[in-house]
Input
Amino acid sequence: MKKHDIKLSDNSYSFVLTIPATILTAIFIIVPIIQSLIMSFQKYGVKNIISGKPGTWNNLRNYIKLFEANQIPEAAYHTLWFVLFVIILQFIIGMALALVLNREFKGSRFIRSIMMTPWVVPTVISGLIWMWLFQPQYGFAKYFISIISFGNINDLAILNNPETALGGIAIAALWKQIPLTTLLLLAGLQNVPNSSLEAATIDGAGEVRKFVSIVLPYLSPVIKIAMSMSIIENFKQFPLFWTMTGGGPNGATTNFAILSYREAFVSMNLGSGAAVTTIWMLMMIIIVGIYQKSFKVQDMS
Amino acid sequence: MKKVIYVLLVLLSCTITLFASGQKEGNDSSKVVLKVANYALLESGYEQFWKDVETNFESKNPNIDIEWVSAPYGEIMNQVINMAGGGDKVDCIFSEIDWIPGFEDAGLAAPIEDILPQSFINDLYPDVMKAFEIDGSAYGVPLYISPYVLYYNKTLFEQAGLDPNTPPKTYDEMLMMAKKLSQLKDSNGNKVYAFGQTTASVPVSGSSVNAMIFNFGGTVLDDNGKLAVDNDGFKKAINMLKTLDDLSYNPQNAKLKDLRNLFALGQLAMYYDQSWGFNGVRTINPDAENFTASAAPLVGANGSGQSLLQSHCFILVDNGEQRKEALSKFVQYVISEDVLADYLSNLTPAYPAIKSMANLDSINNNPVLKGAAQSASNVKAQPFIPQLKDINLELCTLAQAVTVGDESVSTAIEKFKNRAQSKLSE
Amino acid sequence: MKRKKLKFIKIIILILIMLFLLFPIYWMLITSFKTNMEAYLYPPSFFPKNFVLDGFINLFTENNEFFVYYFNNFLVSFVSAIITCLVAIFAGYSIARFNTKWSKTFVAILLSSQMFPIISRMISLYSMMSKLGIINTRSGLILAIVAAQVPFCCLLLSSFFLNIPKEIEEAAKIDGASRNTILFKLLTPLVTPGILAVGIYAFLMTWDDYLHAATLIQSDNLRTLSVGISLRYLGELSYDWSLINSISVIGTLPMVLVFFFFQKYMVKGLVAGAVKG
Output
């Protein structure tokens, strides 16, 4: 092989290897993000897109307007509520399932693989499936609830009620995301050394105690990653909201994604849409930052 | 190192050559390509009609090629605007009347007199054309028009002991009848909704709420496009929405297509729709023709039952002489008795917009539209402002606030004014 | 006694969660075999009374542009997955092995780009790509999608490179192997499971893409699946739930198959990536 290859310093070689990724990221992610940041301080509408003229500075009008109409606080509330609700339940249910599946039993392998099905259903399709289940007149959910409430609740229309609509979307999100969480937790559980568990059993520790003081610490790196993936995904969630409610009813499911899409692509006010995404990104960075800092991984190795 | 770069280069060129073929195939330069943006191509009820239009028009005009640009109803506007931003302007957009101000504001729509011959324009009803004007020029050519008509289910009327040939004329009459109708159950024991008015968060629902406000003699905007909602009619109409919801006559937060479904299944006794909405009812239940009848929009309080003019129209774009000429041919071809007569009598019940079609028996006596025949003349146009879509969406939010949101009418209206004002101030 | 109780609780938990996860799939399946009028029955029927294939027949005969979307989606996902893998091999190795100033910045860039919402990029992306002449082409769409996958995939693959003992590399160096030989002939085969994981992940994510294709593609014959489906679903005229469910079934099927075939790698890869972080 050619000699100069070897002479290439570590620095330049490692740099060259990152070039393709860097170019792609720069062109398709970084530059558009910067443009959108700039746009958020400008009056930028349809005319600008069509004529190609740059936007004009408008003294933070985009931001002021969004706060004045109380749109940002509402979107932030809906986004955070949704993220929190989904990750907490996802963790509890995923953990429960992982603990059950952790032991080998007849059919456990089979269950482990079919459990993953919802995860591979495309998001738009999962939105449709749940919309159909939640359909207010002839949906299955209405029937199911009326049976288990012994006929007391006969008109469940979860997506039509501003108080429950967000919960309805959260159920669809949970359905799609629980499998992956379970899978990751399961893998983490397999790393928990049996010897420690046995030792604890001999010491007379109960199941709960063993779980808290041995299993959880071993799992913490996996939990941290799984949760942060889930925070990011749910913070950005768009297709489920868009197909299932479009942000309604009465604005009850308007999260940042819907608000920015509506401002930018429905009202065709790109400046205002960009302002929403700017605040949205800032919040996300802050929250993920806090999460990373506060979640201490216990080192068991 | 060279190898790495080489691999990358090969890869890049491979993908580009492989998929560049996905770009537009090179067109014959002698042919004029007419780009027509049309969401209806994706609607099963209409697809065949437009495919036929393409084939027949092209065989008559061998030097013109129709190229469809399709996108779903909710996204076609973005599509056209994004394409124009990329330097690729369509020639013609099949659109709702409400979309005109948006396209005019974007600088895409051209006045129709710049493209169509005066002889053709003279054939359009002048009263109707008023509704398409911005500063004195019309920016859209209607294919056909309709008010929001009241569809009702004759069978359900009979079952409730009502005369299927006397539909309600006023909201008060409607409420009386609704009381009886809401007692009914369908054959599976399901609830029957008495009266449907769409309130979901889509612009067309907003325009339907707007039509209801007109029924009560109210206004949303004044002639100058300023917010004008401090009137009795507006308040009464919103109150009516609340009443309908409190009595659970109206399916909550429904889109027009939800109402069409329920109506087709016999679970909705009356509802407001654009006249062509019946096409949707029919695709669900082909038997719907036997029980469907129409009536003029209801009269509310001190209003005269005026409704909002709805229309499917072509918005035209100026793309230079050659394409303009082809476009003019296309528009005149579609808006003609030959093409539309059949469509209007069988597929999409609606009223023609050109005088030369006024005497078509099959349209005037369309059984589905008969009851609402007079209502097409009792319409009012909404002043065209660029933010019309936003105002319509805010109307939906208002309607949802007093129904599913359980807010009081006065607070909901205050909130609406606030948000609408902020949209209008841009 | 206590053990039995615990076991009982476990079984109940398992059944409840599995019902939650699988029932919607069952419901989609049976609805696709119902007529529309039966689908709208209430109370609903748990098994189609008239078992009809209308939805599917309709799909194959009348709405067969669906298969164009399908093919496009397959092509776009497949090519995106391959390009993503290549890019990730280069960058993943670089991150894992060289601890330079640049690679720290690079990782930070990757980590933060994962967080940017797609919507915020769409408009500028649109105008930029039309200037480059790659708007409304599959290649443009592929590049944009690859860019969106690259950050996560590079990080994921780097965790595999990290797992290879440095000694292997050093031994090869002493034998006089060039850097490229080391990377492509020696190390890449060793991270095959990781590459498969990245490839399948990229494939799945692209298959799921909605916003990119919705914005960057205008011609019907270039559209991909999710957008195509929502076109059908977004029909303003009426709902055809039986057809929608048939489409959902066919749209989901290949992913289920891909997953079951490659499950081993997928699971291993994702888990390894996640645990190492």
The domain at 31-146+310-376 of chain B is CATH 3.40.190.10 (D-Maltodextrin-Binding Protein; domain 2). The radius of gyration of chain B is 24 Å. The first strand of chain B starts at residue 32 and ends at 38.
